[in-house]
Amino acid sequence: MRLSEDLVWRGLIKDKTFENESWLDSPKTFYLGIDASASSLTVGNLAIILLARRLCAAGWKTTLLIGGGTSLVGDPGGKVQERELKKAEEVEENIASIRRQIVRLFAGKQFELLNNFGWLHKLGYLEFLRDIGKHFSMTELMQREFVAERMNEGGNGISYAEFSYSLIQGYDFWHLFKDKGVELQIGGSDQWGNMLSGVSLIRKKEAKEAHALSMPLVVDKSTGQKFGKSESGAVWLDADMTPPPEFYQFWVNTADADVEAYLKVFTFLDKQEVEGVVRLHENDPAKRSAQRRLADAVTVLVHQEAGLAQARLHAESIRGGSVGAEAVPLKSGVSVIDALVQTGLATSNSDARRIIDEGGVYVDNEHYAKVTLDANGRVVLRRGKKLSNSVLIELK
Questions:
Q1: Does domain 3-217 have CATH number 3.40.50.620?
Q2: Which CATH number fits domain 328-395: 3.90.1150.10, 3.10.290.10, 3.30.70.100, 3.40.1190.20?
Q3: For residues 277 and 384, which has the higher predicted lDDT (pLDDT)?
Q4: Per-residue pLDDT tens for 240-264?
Q5: Distance (Å, whole) CA 91 – CA 148
Q6: pLDDT score of 18
Q7: Is residue 324 pLDDT above 60, yes or no?
Q8: Residue 329 — φ and ψ, nearest 5°?
Q9: What is the distance between the alpha carbons of residues 91 and 79, in angstroms, rounded to a whole number?
């Protein structure tokens, strides 16, 4: 399957400045900008990084740009209010951490890793206004979606610093076009306006064509919210921030409605393999075979085989009762309310009812919606999606 066909099948193309997807089948040079406002990438970032991996594998020359300069300003895209400015020292620490994650994710691949602070900190203000700002129309900039949302009635407004961010990103693209021969920028759909700034600037200053490609933001269909959050917050790629067992369980908890799309976006399984996994899952959804294949593939990618082994061992140790805790004895047929309270997973009956109403009860890693626990033997009762909120119980 050609690259363009594969990306279309995976649902990875939203907006593009080139007319036909087949343009992607002739490898050139592309870049992906990576924000450094946090000390770790998230699973939301992982989607676009894997798109970069696909281009790289198809022969595209790969430039990964960490925003050491732009992160000092703050990207307004997708934000309803002004970002808090980061200290330079914090951004430097974030870059060091993110660099390690990128190197791990692109292990064995050919790529160049750059930091835009290297050229942005040398740029003079008057030079920027004359050479860059002069090429942008205020009318055009005010129509950008992220600006319009912040400026409209009920919006929180936007500072000149964040308003100028799009021009800085455009400068990055122009700089890389001249210095590295970059012809394509990729990003999430929330970056589309920023990417167009570079396309426009190159056309005006160089009288040449460069292009942009955005992929759809991954959305949790069950909530309609931007993908990448768990009950305990963002799901990070850093093992200290989201341990491999919790990372693994996040993917196991994927809703049936989402699992096929996530297999396409977050794994390198080909079309035949994905379709086979989905068929197997549809024959017996209760086994969650598709979710487990997804969890295996993404956990290995991010945390290697050792991380996957740790995650599986953790799950088995809880299930088998070998985590050093005694099983809580309860009578088979006990109400879920009583079970939550007696195991300490809920502080009161009213707290237990709230957990149940919110759909937060799991038994043996499966969502549980019954009124009583009718079983014999050991089961794991869990409150919410966080593995640490699990208790082994013995039903007799």
A1: yes
A2: 3.10.290.10
A3: 277
A4: 999 998 899 899 889 899 999 999 9
A5: 28
A6: 97
A7: no
A8: -80, 130
A9: 19
